[in-house]
Write a structure and sequence with these properties.
Elements (H helix, E strand, L loop, with lengths): L1 H13 L2 H35 L10 E5 L4 H12 L3 E6 L2 H13 L4 E5 L5 H14 L5 E4 L14 H29 L3 E5 L12 H24 L7 E7 L10 E2 L11 H14 L3 E4 L2 H9 L4 H11 L2 E2 L4
Parallel strand pairs: 1-2, 1-4, 2-3, 4-5, 5-6, 6-8
Antiparallel strand pairs: 7-9
Helix pairs in contact: 3-4, 3-8, 5-6, 6-7
């Protein structure tokens, strides 16, 4: 009875004209502060976006990269090493990974190679423990490993579909669980994830691949938000998601490009350079080339039938290999 009386009293109190007016004023004031802070952040980001932010020194960082045996992963390892960072290369292909590590060491760099299947959670956690003991705390984690089978949806086997998601998506979770705890403990670190243009735009012959790369974007955004809220905004761990266009790494087997000067096949070295720069500048999301993000965002404001006309005009993508 006392509880019911108390609840009734609170309702009656909150419904008085004075209380309604007070609550309304509080909401208006909060909204005004929100608008001031919102536009302040917009102008700050525009300012730094136009002038550019300084690339921070990574010479004292330990950079772990998955898929360092070839392509973008190898180029990332070479470029970070040239900046003085210590490289930890993970790849399932022992011979190719060893070649990357050897190349770095031949130039006087510090590099450690580990043979790891990133889909194996136990192996990931076990090797992460070895890295901590043998090298030290990983401060920059780059989830780069991926596969890209390319054919019509109904021609994908169950095994192939599962493997696409295990490597391109689920493996990121195992890497988070392996290295994020130490980053949180030290309140320092940067996680970079390789998504794809196919992670913001759907392409024919790449249905499972697109799904896996769209998922990477969602996981990175959610993880960043989770750390921001749980730390009350005090977390210094940064996140960067990268969406490259088609890259000449051997994954894109049958490329179709109508305007090669506008949508050319990218070189692994130039994509890696963009990734390194984005990480050092603290950019949250980056397409390579940069205009692709703005073009996609612009077209999303129009009916799909209209944006499809634009896509048909450019007529670029991946042909089926079956």
């Amino acid at each position: 009875m006392e509880s019911e009386s108390s609840s009734r009293l609170n309702r009656d109190t909150n419904s008085t004209p004075g209380a309604v007016l007070y609550n309304s004023v509080i909401i208006v004031v909060d909204l005004a502060f929100l608008l001031v802070k919102f536009w302040f952040r917009v102008f700050v980001e525009l300012y730094y976006g136009l002038l550019g932010t300084e690339e921070r020194n990574v010479a004292n960082d330990i950079v772990l990269i998955t898929g360092t045996g070839h392509g973008i992963g190898k180029e990332l390892a070479l470029q970070y090493s040239a900046l003085g960072a210590t490289i930890v290369g993970w790849d399932i292909n022992e011979a190719m990974n060893a070649e990357t590590i050897k190349q770095i060491k031949s130039k006087g760099g510090k590099a450690y190679g580990y043979t790891v299947d990133v889909t194996n959670r136990e192996k990931v956690l076990e090797t992460a423990s070895k890295v901590l003991t043998e090298v030290g705390d990983v401060t920059i984690l780059i989830n780069n490993a991926g596969i890209m089978p390319q054919h019509e949806m109904l021609k994908h086997s169950e095994k192939e579909i599962r493997l696409v998601f295990e490597i391109n998506t689920v493996a990121h979770c195992w890497m988070f669980q392996a290295f994020l705890p130490r980053m949180i403990e030290k309140n320092r670190g940067h996680i970079v994830a390789l998504s794809s243009i196919a992670g913001i735009v759907g392409f024919k012959n790449l249905v499972p691949y697109c799904g896996s790369k769209f998922a990477v974007r969602g996981m990175m955004e959610a993880l960043g938000e989770e750390l921001r809220l749980y730390s009350d905004g005090k977390s210094k761990i940064k996140f960067t998601t990268v969406y490259p266009y088609m890259v000449d790494t051997g994954l894109c087997k049958r490329v179709k490009i109508r305007f090669e000067n506008f949508l050319k096949l990218l070189k692994p070295s130039e994509v890696a350079a963009s990734i390194v720069s984005a990480q050092r500048r603290g950019i949250v999301e980056l397409t390579v080339p940069r205009y692709m993000f703005f073009l996609n965002s612009f077209l999303r404001n129009f009916p799909t039938t209209a944006s499809a006309l634009v896509r048909d005009f450019f007529d670029s993508g991946i042909e089926s290999d079956m």
